[in-house]
């Protein structure tokens, strides 16, 4: 308890320091103080059982603060553009997702076909349509609007599985929906982008389908095969892959924030609001659609999280391959932290409420 109080006091002092430095026109130093505020907060959250799940997202904010104040550090090193790391990192993340799967997980499809079908259909209809609606209502530049739609058209990611576990939802269902939605993404994501984002940017269906295949489908299948052959034999690798995946997501977000800093300063607050609306709408529609179809509370929670949480890393990678890392990529970069904060909050709230059978 004393450690927590001391941590909050230290974090508050760093925040005051940051505000004072900005007020006195010492903005170059303010970035470091703001980073230390988020870092102190993250370390303090680690000491609190109920706030522990916010640690990763808060550390992302710490790194993003540096990227906003000192973008040149995160754009290139020695002439090497750091944006070139995004695709390899994303492939490692997808390989890690495959390593977390097994053929037994996929057999769940046979046992819960209705719930899985509702989860996938809900995911690939609710989120794309809400994303398109928001992009059409708000007056964003065309490429940023396309990025909003891209977030809605992507599959769910590993974060939804973690949140389902914390929320006392149906973890097997969550893993199955995540796996199948990702396996279907080489077809559905380009198709939906072509239909919904075509009026904002040019979408080359076959190019995007191949990009999604090599970034998602091939690494996941390789991870699944790797899991079936050596799972449990290399315990150090089993522990390392989740850490690598989380680090990879963090690095991708920071690179995009640095690259798109100027555009983010122009539309940042409004884009955060739109991403929050998209995220919360996914939870809401996913949950109540499941309730209307008569699913148990555990399945309702799972489908809500699967519909509302997107693979923002994949969206970032596709934005890069579309040539719009600093414009199309902004919405995925914002959605990731927003999704993790809301998902952690919702999972923590549900964790305290035992699901009724």
Detailed description of the structure:
This protein folds into 2 domains: about 80 residues; about 270 residues, Na+/H+ antiporter like fold (Up-down Bundle), CATH 1.20.1530. The two termini are about 35 Å apart. Helix 6 runs parallel beside helix 9, helix 6 crosses helix 12 and helix 6 runs parallel beside helix 13. It contains 15 helices and 2 strands. The protein is globular. It has a two-stranded antiparallel sheet.
CATH architecture of the largest domain: Up-down Bundle
Largest sheet features: 2 strands, antiparallel
> Which CATH class of the largest domain applies here?
Mainly Alpha
Sequence of strands across the biggest β-sheet: 1-2
Counting helices, strands and paired strands, the structural category is mainly alpha
* Number of domain units: 2
Q: Tally the helices: what do you get?
A: 15
Level of helix content?
A: over 70%
- Strand fraction equals under 5%
Overall pLDDT, averaged?
A: 82
- 3D shape: globular
List low-confidence stretches.
none
Q: What value does the Rg take, in angstroms?
A: 20 Å
From the N-terminal CA to the C-terminal CA, the straight-line distance is 36 Å
CATH fold annotation of the largest domain = Na+/H+ antiporter like fold
């Amino acid at each position: 308890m004393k450690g927590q109080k001391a941590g909050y006091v230290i974090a508050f002092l760093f925040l005051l320091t940051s505000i004072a430095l900005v007020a006195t026109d010492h903005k170059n130093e303010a970035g470091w103080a703001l980073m230390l505020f988020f870092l102190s907060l993250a370390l303090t959250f680690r000491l609190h059982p109920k706030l522990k799940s916010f640690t990763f997202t808060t550390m992302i904010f710490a790194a993003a603060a540096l990227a906003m104040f000192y973008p040149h550090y995160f754009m290139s090193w020695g002439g090497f553009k750091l944006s070139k790391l995004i695709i390899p990192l994303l492939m490692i993340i997808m390989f890690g997702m495959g390593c977390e799967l097994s053929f037994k997980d996929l057999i769940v499809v046979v046992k819960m076909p209705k719930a899985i079908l509702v989860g996938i259909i809900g995911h690939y209809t609710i989120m794309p349509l809400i994303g398109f609606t928001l992009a059409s209502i708000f007056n964003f530049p065309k490429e940023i609007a396309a990025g909003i739609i891209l977030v809605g058209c992507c599959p769910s990611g590993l974060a939804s599985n973690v949140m389902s576990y914390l929320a006392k939802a149906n973890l097997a269902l969550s893993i199955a929906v995540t796996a199948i939605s990702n396996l279907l993404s080489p077809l559905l994501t380009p198709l939906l982008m072509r239909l919904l984002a075509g009026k904002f940017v040019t979408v080359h269906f076959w190019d995007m389908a191949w990009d999604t295949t090599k970034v998602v489908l091939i690494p996941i299948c390789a991870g699944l095969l790797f899991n079936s052959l050596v799972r449990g034999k290399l315990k150090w690798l089993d522990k390392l892959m989740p850490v690598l995946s989380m680090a990879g997501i963090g690095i991708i977000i920071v690179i995009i924030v640095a690259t798109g800093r100027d555009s983010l300063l122009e539309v940042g607050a409004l884009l955060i609001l739109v991403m929050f609306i998209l995220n919360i709408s996914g939870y809401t529609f996913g949950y109540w659609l499941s309730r209307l179809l008569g699913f148990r509370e555990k399945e309702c929670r799972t489908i809500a999280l699967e519909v509302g949480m997107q693979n923002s890393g994949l969206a970032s990678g596709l934005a890069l391959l579309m040539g719009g890392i600093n414009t199309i990529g902004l919405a995925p970069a914002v959605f990731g932290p927003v999704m993790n904060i809301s998902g952690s909050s919702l999972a923590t709230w549900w964790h305290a409420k035992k699901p009724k059978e």
